[in-house]
TrEMBL record:
Pfam families: Dabb. Signal peptide: none annotated. The lineage of its organism: Bacteria, Pseudomonadati, Planctomycetota, Phycisphaerae, Sedimentisphaerales. Gene3D superfamilies: 3.30.70.100. Residues 48-142 form the Stress-response A/B barrel domain. Transmembrane segments: none annotated. This is Dabb family protein. SUPFAM superfamilies: Dimeric alpha+beta barrel.
Amino acid sequence: MARNLICLVVVSILLGGCVFVRECERIREDDRDPARPVAVTAAPSRLLRHVVLFKFKDDSSAADIRRIENAFLALPSRIDAIYSLEWGTDVSVENLHKGFTHCFIVTFRSEADRATYIPHPAHKEFGELLGPHLDDVLVLDYWTK
């Protein structure tokens, strides 16, 4: 009887170990899945959003506008103060855009980061590229809640 009990305990340990190893392999396989979200550090509790809307001049070509888009999208690689950047073009069906076609949302962790961004040489260089094509701009900043 003691012998059977010992065998049962050993088999249980071996089976439990196999299940544990298989679960670890599954977790490693999941970690290799590119569609699985990657853990990142927690975002600050509040973020400063800098919303920029552009209305381009009628004579600005699609190529000019694409150069401006690419230059804006390059700013996070040139200015460390930028926490994130997202953008898009108007797709509203309400037709209330008033000629503004592009929206860029630059996110900062602090007012100090925004204060670094505004006079930054890369931002000034972008402004020089944008200037000849800009008909109007709207800028709105707010803190997330």
